Amino acid sequence: MKGLTLEITGPTLKDLRLKTDSSYEDVSRAISGRSVGFFIGAAIGGVLVDKLHPFCNLMIAICLDGIAVVTTIAPYMTSVNVIWALFVLAGTFEGVINISGQKLILDMWLDKASSPMHALHLGFGIGSFIVPEIANPFLAVPAPTLSTSGVNATVNMTSTLQTSTTTGPLSTTIEYVKDSRIEWAYLIVACISVIVSFAFYFYQYNDRRKPTNFSEDVNMKISDKEIESHANASDGNATQTKSFIGTLKSFVKIANPGSCTGGRKMYGVVIFMFLFLYFFTAVGGERIYGKFLRTFAIDELNFDGDDATLLNTAFWISFSCGRFTGFVTARWIPIRTLMIIEACGCLVSAVLLNVFAYNDSTLLWVFSMPMGFFIAPLFPTGIAWGDFHVEMTGMAITFCLLGGALGGMSYMWIIGYLYDNYGYRTFIYLTGGFGACIVLFAFILLFIGCGQGNRFAKNEEFSEDVIEKEIENTKI
To answer: Any idea what DSSP says for residue 75?
Structure first.
């Protein structure tokens, strides 16, 4: 579902620019609002999941309906600032969904969560390659370009563009033989989101016993506090102070990286710092390639709209294949090895794109496929790698998603600025920088994890030692 709602902005990027009468930089910043919201949603979601864990299905259902409302409204807006605000709200819902879903998988599968985690994220890829086909019938279609004194010119909408082959702005007018009707594409995606939400309401209803027990526990705690409050009526202020201090200590404990690493605070700080940078890069690279591939193909290599949409769809099919392969291979290949293979695959694909595909449409097709294949499993592999070494609590997942949200926002701002001011090929160059960075952080994480075994194996050894000591004490 997230693939549909998040990637609808990719194939409709040029139409959003047309509707708002703005530059690529402005539209990119508006779309980056989703990453800002994801940042907020991840922060909120971590606390909600840790405190209201039995209600994860309900949180997912409500957020899916919230996304549907925002998705329906967004294409009607003509101000990039309003679109940015709406995408911030949608991103907030997506952040809560992401943490809730991943926490459910980790709790359900424990040390075998790597393959299910890839399967969970496979759904994103499937939605992503479906959505270009949903959007394509509703996209604006420009008239065939006419050549006038060596300058491409068309009629109807005036805008200022800068191409990679000119040093200054080129004034053009663009005629469209078919107007943009992307409101219908967004509405279809919103309806699918609402339909999917019904499944999670059903799951929550079937799992209603857990919320009931949870409510009873809460009520018991409240009752105990009321009894204690009545018994100590004269010390009401002191009780409130103690309660506040207790809440503060609880929050500090949740946020403490040592709580995920068996008390090794410095190890927790280091590992989460580089996980943050890893997700910053992985999500940022995925965002720019998924959002700008179709636009680059049209602007730089003169693809027509249908061919560019087909290329975008093929990229997301390859992306889905990468996640499905990760789902299968994660059962047999160590997660640390998988991370290095995927990162190196991204770097090699990025180098090939920079060397051969910047001016060749066929090679752009060829090398975009391995890029999609290797970029796809980076996110679920990062979560699974983290869970292999440390306990991925709600706050731990939140911290990783904050890195991804900040990366998605930053990369979109950068590509929007570069694309408008330094030419279309900056898309390829930034992809190369992404490939180099992801390999760097993958190897750093590999070195950090060297000598650190499977945390589940350590827990089993600890449990066996405890059992042996209890048996010995019983004999004595």
So the answer is: G
